[in-house]
Write the structure tokens for this entry.
Amino acid sequence: MITQDMSSNPFEIIDGQVILHDEFQGVDRVVINYEQVAAIKLLLEALKNGEI
């Protein structure tokens, strides 16, 4: 059985995408793609500026 070190972050930002390193299944997968990252940034900026 493979156990993940809970102090390590299983997420990594690569080329503007958020990647999940799933050691249990032995795969890496995109969990937030370019468009989603851009949308989140726009929402955070609007929130910071009091627009929403």
About this structure: The CA atoms of residues 21 and 28 lie 5 Å apart.
